[in-house]
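Folded chain entry —
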Amino acid sequence: MSKQTLHTLIGAATLLVAAFVFVIGHQGGPREKASGYPIVGRFASIDGIGVGTKVLLAGIPVGQVAGYAYDPEGQRAIVTFTIQDDIKIPLDSVALIVSDGLLGAKYIKIQPGGELDMMQSGDEFEYVQDAIAFEEILEKVILNAEHQRNKRNEDDAESKPNQATIEGPASQAATETILTEPVRIR
């Protein structure tokens, strides 16, 4: 077998492996129907959340997003979670959409409340926190920095005297000195 044929076969095998990894890594949605009881949350924004997104309680996966729909009357996204049957969530718990790091994937985090009564199948979270878009935060930081820079430039301009507007005895003395002193030219 020639060297060129060997390199071609290795290249083809590498492409096949890369394609296989790509297909396996990008298969979306849940692999199987989650068992458990459904609970609902109404959010103004669910950016980055989809069917199969993990639901965590104390950092442990306890369910997943089963579906979502738009409520035209309330102008909100209705998200349905499926929670494992053996997990009990207090009624006053909070459902938050958070991201795993600065640019990581988003997931639902449940912060348990102190209520003694637990959520049942079909109950709805009273307290939720919407997804926060990284782009919006970055835009606010940039606008704030520009505002601070413009303010600082205005303050600097006001604090520097304009020589054309200085008046009084000191400026007259300086002008007389300049005009009356002899100038040597070589």
Notes: The mean pLDDT is 80. The chain has two domains: 28-130, 132-161. Residues 142 and 148 are 10 Å apart (CA to CA). The chain has three helices and seven strands.
